[in-house]
Amino acid sequence: MRLLRFILRRLMLAVVTLLTLFTLTFFLMRAVPGDPLTRTKEIPEETRKNLEERYGLDKPLHKQYLLQMERIFIHGDFGTSFRTVGREVNDIIREQFPVSASVGLVSVLIGVLTGVALGIVAALNRNGIIDRFAMFLCVAGISVPSFLFAFIFQYCLAVYPLTVLKFNPDTWLRPAGWGEARDFVMPSITLALGIIASITRMLKSQMIEVGFSEYIKTAKAKGVSLVRLVVLHQIRNAILPIVSIIFPMLVFTMSGSLIIEAGFGIPGLGRAYMTSIQNSDYNVIMGLTVFFGGFLIIANLITDILYGVIDPRIRVG
Amino acid sequence: MNQRNQSPHAATADDVLSGELFKPQPAQGSSAEQLSRPVVGYWKDALLRLSKNRIAVFSLTLILFVALVGIVGPFFFPKTNDDTAYENAQNLNFLNQSPTFGEKLLVTEDSPAALEELVKENFDDKAPLLKADLLKAPAQLSVRGLATVNGVSLQWEPILGVSGYQVYRTVVAGQPISLEDVSKDPSVRGLQVGTVSNPAQYTFTDGSGLNPAERYIYSVVAFVTDPATQEELVSTDAAALEVGLTQTISLTDAASLKTDVQAGDTIRGHKHIFGTDALGRDIFSRMVSGTRIDFFLALLVPTVSLLFGLCYGAISGLMGGKVDMILMRIVEILDTLPELLLLVLIQVAIGKGVSSLVIALCAFSWTGYARVLRGEVLRLREIEFVHASRLLGAPLMSIIFRHVAPNLLGVIIVMWSAHIPRIITSEAFLSLFGLGVEAPMATWGTVLQDAAVHFQQYPAQFFLPAAVLAATLLAFYTLGDALRDAFDPKLRGRD
Amino acid sequence: MFTRSALGLSRSALTTLVAYATLTLSFPAFAQQNTQADRRNNQEIFLNMGDEPPSMDPNKGVDTVSYFWLGHLFEGLMTTDKNGNIVPGTASHVAVSDSGRTYTFTIRPNAKWHDGKKVTAKDFEYAFRRLVDPVFASEYSFIAVTAQIQNAAEIIKKKKPVSELGAKAVNDSTFVVKLENPVAFFKSLMAFQAFFPVRKDVVEKTGDKFATAVDNIVGNGPFKLVSWKKESSMRMEKASTYWNASSIKLRAIEAPVMLKDVGAAFNNFRTGGLDITGLDKERLETAQRERLQVKTFADGGVFFLEMNQREGKLFANIKLRQALRIAISRREYINKVTGVPGDKPAFGLVPDYMPGASKTYRQEAALSYRDGDVAGAKKLIKEYLAETKQSKVPSFSILAGDSNNAKKESEYMQALLKNVFETEVKIDSVPFKTRLQKQRDGQFDIVSGGWGPDYLDAMTFMDLFTTTNDNNHGHYVSKAFDDLIVKAQRSGSMSERVKLFQEAERLLVVTDSAIVPIIQRGRAYLLAEGLQGVRRNQVGQDPDLRFASWNGASAKK
After folding, report:
1. Which architecture, in CATH terms, is B61-72+279-491?
2. In angstroms, rounded to a whole number, what is the distance separating the alpha carbons of residues C318 and C380?
3. Which residues in chain A have their CB less than 8 angstroms from residue C272's CB?
4. How far is B421 from chain A (nearest CA, A)?
5. Is the model's pTM score more than 0.80?
6. Domain C75-220: CATH superfamily, name plus number
7. Does the complex come out with an ipTM higher than 0.95?
8. Do the Cβ atoms of C269 and C479 come closer than 8 Å?
């Protein structure tokens, strides 16, 4: 009952958030000089009028606002792209979101697995070589922006081996491209670095925190073997908070990979977004922003619920 | 049993406890309240622990050093001929140079007369066209005058009965190649830099995109145009010639480097320790002047966000009730928006420039401060020592300044310092998308953007500034971490 | 206990992964191995067009990417041969009336659509009508006005019904087009994509979805679209239904990637993933070091500075405009800034390749020029200052795009103009659309503009700067210029037109200095060794691969 009320309240807030996002995006877009019909070669006035009529751009701004709002929130239809004729925004999302999502998912998977392993080892091997290495990796992974890594990897992992060492281009990593399993490698590693860093750091501090807790002391006092102690008591409790950040991390990774997608030639939503901004493609900009916004909201909601389920201390509501 | 054995004063059979051993301590009066060791306050403790953290001290030193170079550096830039700032001064003779401590340059006259293209007189241009298989390479290919980045002028013997000549150029560096290869194999002649369609013209000057560090192989072939199909038939062999460029500097420019020079001297040019970019601008000086903007942004944006967030959070926390609820819902809404996407959109909407960058970056970063500071205010309002202070009759101001503010400051400093590197990253990110400051202003991001275009060709141009960026960010994060640890008394003694 | 929970965790992760994998089914389908050697044997070409085609509807397609695909998938009444000459395409024969106002096309009996149906005159009639239909609102409808097809202008303005268009199918194989005035280059216009045939039944069946997916496109050209993965790959294969299929040697043309970044595409080329790709200045040296085959061509575009001549604007003053014209060193600009060997200096508006009456236009209509004359420019500026009694030229700004190249070029211009005009010069660097809008609204002093030809005649450039043209962003107003252009539009004689154009160009560029031409854009590209017959065009599909093939003998690697 309590959970239901909590979810209901959050859903109401989500609607308000989405409307805010919609309004912000709508007016920001309109504030940018130029509209979807602005072309390098000017469209003759008569044709322009005909086109405006066709796309409903001749209506007053508040009408356009209300119409688009109705179309998106009531009919769930984001409209069609102004740039790519006849291409529905819903199709863009349906086709290109899985691409972004799969890259994000693989990155998070790599990141979480590596991060968890590294975090545990670092915590157990405190101030040892592995720990120091892991900690350096953490700070580097968090502080150095991912686009720098993208450049480095592209050069070191693909261009150099292919052109100087003459690796076989049919099997080795492609510098950019999409469609084969190997194309996942570089973008995923690039995106995973930041995840590895934050997970390792979090897990290590959690492990240490747990290590000082009373129940570990108790277990130690009762003579539990070291392996059992670490595996059953320490890791298990330390790992719980990690679970809660995985989902937001996934969303963040997916929406935050704009440069990565451009650099590696990945046909994901980030790329579609940048193209749409360049072309003042109103419907695509709006569609993608609202989609990502909604995605973020749901992700947060799930995380909160998950947190409540995992950690009984936190009572929802 | 165990305990007795371990005690240092374990009783032996000879020891006898007597009353003399137990004398009452005389009363010490006020001195009992004194602390035997120096008082270590919250701040002092934090500083002390920070200074013990060697990595943090190193990071701080690095940041201060970078800042110092940014502040002082521009005063030591070389003078330019006009009032252009040195970091914006273009030198079209030194495009995309690798890092150098000053190349050797030949001083030339200010405006050497450009070489005219030459046409052979009394040349029979009505001669019947040669058959394609009789076409030969032009003889005696040689360089006219001085070959520099401004132009390489070639000359050759004109051939009777051709339609014209094609000039090709390739580089010596890279996969091994000989003049013989170039002469025989059309596929390795490289780029066609020009066509001479007058058979009597026997010179050609090429100047497009020459790089002073490169050695070139020029090759010239003759061709005839089939009058029926308009197809160009080319001689199988080419005349080939290897050409190295001489680096020159004009007399006026040389005079600003060294007094008492004249044409024909050799002098050392400017130092470019990070090399130059695609417009011949010194990258190091661009980084230095970029430091000013980046650090300015990195200090201003967190501060503005902090002040706004502080007011917002304090109002929300102190007012409570409905106001608090509404204000916090607003924060929640803003927090859920896809920040990166909107950041790009805002920048596009409000245009370029430092001020719009500040607005765009602040728009989303104040909410974090507001949320945390509201929580802190709520917590501190109810905390025991504040209650105690209030009960003891301390005035409100004193409570705020003695108890609330210092406790907030720790949190503020930690948040603020963690915010700084994120701003530097955001600036670089936006610049890579062509957003950010107005050209030709230099920031770290614009330097990276300029270099990213050709980072595989000129990696130093990208990786040196990138290393500076990465090192600075690392230092900021490490320092931020150290500050967090230092201000968190719970962690004391664990490390 | 731990192991169980760990398993539970990874199992749930696994479920999610599987869920996503099903979502992404579309994705590894293209994973067939296709090396350059395979392609050589199979006569296939891989290339990067950089982007998704904005539209595959012939009546709508407006950019080079769309045109590349459409030009291979469709064929108009006329087409080009491998030397670029205009020859009959889907029409086997064309008859022109003596007045030059009526064109009668006879459709080939063996011209077929990819689904096997015959191409009829009705398909052309439908396409022509669709082009000018105000409800359909094609952005390229103006080309029908340029072609002077009867009533086109009135139909676009909704003053006449679509059925009144002067292009009619007399029967299945005869198509007649009536013109208002004779148009010297009408035949070459009939090879243009906007005039490609369109199948009415396909349009009506698919509605708004026409030409948005493989199944919704039926062409009549030498190639047939077989696969289209949005934003990632496209492939077309030789169409056996094409009337001239025996002349086509290639079996398939594929864009295996759509890379906007030239560097990324370059990397794919040098590792054997592409056979043709564009090359920028930055990668030129690397390409040469690796002994890759570099080619250059003129892409047809002419770039010029437009100056805002609206009242009260700085460059309304003719002296300043003339100073700008002679001060800029096009040679230095090309050699040092753009650095692409295919670039040529432009002193006039009409590019060198444009045909004239018998030779090229430029050979028949010479134009005087001055280049890099800073001293001369400074003298003009002094005169301006004396006339207006000022001590310093007011500061002004350059409107520029935000791409890397635009940024570099405007920064160069800024430094140069600062030196020449001895005043502060700002750069207003804005996103693409914003630049266009500001250009339109006259919110600029100087902007770098450019124009690519729509058809192979000097008119495509010359009519830009008439008073009423929307592309005349600087608001150049000259009655004399307008009159000359109108005269040229009404004239059917090429030699007379060349004279008129020459006079108009001299007025525009030299006398009034309304624009400052800078470069005729060239482009460098990489071509795999052994690939022959690749044609680069200024007008029409570029690259044109219809006559391309692999030459097996020269395969070395």
Report:
1. Orthogonal Bundle (1.10)
2. 10
3. 169-170
4. 7
5. yes
6. Dipeptide-binding Protein; Domain 1 (3.90.76.10)
7. no
8. no
